[in-house]
Amino acid sequence: MRRLITAASAAVAVAGCVAGLLYLGPDTSRPRATATPAGAHSAGISPVDVARKATEAYPDDPAAWAGLARAEIERARTTLDAGRLNVADRALRRSLALDGTDNYGAVTGQGLLANARHKFAKGREYGLRATRMAPDRPDGYAVLADAEIQLGNYPQARAAVQRMLDIAPATAAYSRAAYDLETSGRPEDAAIALQRAVDSAVTQDERGFAEARLGDLAWSQGKVDQAERHYRRALAAVPDHPYGQAGIARVAAARGHTGKALELYARLVERTPLPQFLLETLELRHATGDSRQGSERAVLSTQVQMVRAGGGPVDPHLILYAADHGDPKVAVELARREWKHARSVIVADALGWALHRAGQNTEALTYARRAAATGWKNALFRYHRGAIEQALAMPEGSRHLSEAVALNPHLSLYHPDADR
């Protein structure tokens, strides 16, 4: 089975935030595209192909090898193929062998790679090093912002992204800004930032990623038609975009076409067995009374066993799977392990839910509140918090459950208890 990047690793690419709306004002000019070879996109040449040709033409150029590493990491984010990270690692080693003293491209590449592998403390170190090397270049701040957000250091992430926006207001900065605007409870502003990310996209991968994020944002607000438009645009940019395909499956389910949705999910998880997609498939089957749950459950159980044995990064969706469909004690074990390395609100929510399912509601509430600390209008977070509060006989539990359904009326497609 092809090794896949976890959903949390993919999310790293949009982590970050901004203070205020100065960069979103109506007079802000459209960002200029960064340089890319003329005709590359129209000829169907991928950034990875371009970067690889550069290393063939200039095998002793450290910048060429650092560029290849960056292209491979970006492609890994789009395809969710973690094998590309090993290729990036080798390219970075080659770059550093050629220039190990003043190699900004390799340092930022090391930071991107560390973050993709959930080594966020190390990613932060590389980000700080890069920003000291070149305070007026944006890439180091991107690495730093991604690491800080996953470590739960939101003010520091905000400062890093604001610096990115000041230096280079382009897709990378706008995507990160959108993530924090969303997690700070400002979805409308996040949509504006993501549209800026689409408008300033240089590659089809960038465009597809931003459109899929716009789809997710619309979906989270129950805007099915709008979500579908963005998911289809993501697929137009990148025909096999996994998040675009998952989004179209969600839209089909929301319109009552459960059979079609499950067919779409089945094709997706056969090619891209990411925990998020497998769990969505399993929970849709469960919610609609479909008894054919064996394959998704088996794959997810195997992934849980592998991550327990391997000791590597833990996808939060695996934690949620273990909590709801496996052994809650294992879910707590995995969540506590991930919490040692990543303290984002996503991990806080997963840990809180695992503790709740294991019957440890008092401690669970601590993490549910931590997940809510940024103000994110996240229906699943509200549902989890409300269920924990109800278990503790707290009156606000019913309110949070009602808020969850109000935020996204389609939540019950995957969590039928949310309507109760």
Describe the protein's architecture and organization.
The chain is mainly alpha-helical. Helix 5 runs parallel beside helix 7. It has 22 helices and no strands. The longest helix is centred in the first third of the chain and has 18 residues, at 62-79.
Can you lay out the helices and strands and say which pair or pack?
Elements (H helix, E strand, L loop, with lengths): L6 H6 L34 H11 L4 H18 L3 H16 L5 H13 L3 H14 L5 H12 L3 H14 L3 H13 L3 H13 L4 H17 L3 H14 L4 H13 L3 H14 L3 H13 L6 H17 L5 H10 L2 H12 L5 H13 L3 H11 L7 H13 L4 H12 L13
Mean model confidence by pLDDT? 88
How many helices does DSSP assign? Answer: 22
Q: In total, how many beta strands?
A: 0
The proportion of residues forming helix, as a percent range, comes to 55-70%
Report the major sheet: none
**Low-pLDDT residue intervals, each spanning 5 or more residues:** 7-43
Structural class: mainly alpha
- Please write the string of helix (H) and strand (E) elements: HHHHHHHHHHHHHHHHHHHHHH
Radius of gyration: 21 Å
How would you sum up the global shape?
Answer: globular
Q: In percent, how much strand structure appears in the residues?
A: under 5%
Give the termini separation. Answer: 39 Å
